[in-house]
Amino acid sequence: MSSTVDIATPDGVADAFLAAPDDRPHPGVLFIMDAFGLRPTIGEMLDRIAADGYVVLAPNVFYRAGRAPVLALPDLTDPEQRAGFFVSLRPLIDQLTPERVATDGAAYLDYLAGVAAPGPIAITGYCMGARVGWRLAAANPDRVAALAAFHAGGLVTDAPDSPHRSAAQLTAELYFGFADQDPSMTAEQIATLEQTLKQAGARYRSEIYAGAQHGYTMADTPAHDEAARERHFHELNALLRRTLAVSS
Q: Are 170 and 201 in contact (CB under 8 A)?
């Protein structure tokens, strides 16, 4: 059962969910939330990952705007509510500059190192959390053994600091589970990402989940796809077992 903990950062205190199978040390997994924030479905996902033998930490990356829930999830099937929600959400996402991600990420990794078994950790990121996870893995190659990204958006842009431009800094093993109905990561952008990773010599696997929409792992949204969600858990577990030493 996940609990709530506080993490000191240079800009304040980030609340976070923490889950572990028992009191023994286990390899660490940093779970980077989607844009909808920390909520019960995230806690359920943490518990499931932790049950396989990991200490899992999910920080509220929007902590500068308050403790979770920062924004109440509206009826996403209502166009007006959905539009208003995303207007409110945009400033929170824009606050996550590469510099803030780096300083926050160091605090998250330090906290996880204090509660997990010694050694590198893995990151799993969802939606915008995949971008955050990428930046953390690129900035901390000696501390991150694996990065999984599910229904990731915005990994390839025209911006000078687009995540894909730092592919050469990644040493982690990578897994991408893209949604095939996702305007935030088009087929062209996926192809660019894969080409960039190949040129960088990265260890990666990239798959497109047929029929899945952006957000397919999240059981509390209309995009939820149970088959795709289960596939995500299977692939994540396989990546963690390949890259982290699990205690028996």
A: no
Structure confidence at residue 246 (pLDDT):
63
DSSP secondary structure letter of residue 167: G
Active site residue 161: no
pTM: 0.96
Interhelix angle for 128-139 vs 98-115, to 10°? Answer: 80
From 15, 34, 104, 182, the catalytic residue: 182
User: 42 phi and psi, to 5 degrees?
Assistant: -70, -40
Question: What are the sequence ranges of the domains in the chain?
Answer: 3-243
- For residue 248, pLDDT beyond 50: no
- Give the type of residue at 31: F
3-243 topology per CATH: Rossmann fold (3.40.50)
Active site residue 6: no
Is 26 in the active site? Answer: no
Query: What mean pLDDT is predicted for residues 84-105?
Result: 92
Query: How does pLDDT run across 158-180, given as a tens digit for each residue?
Result: 999 999 999 999 999 999 999 99
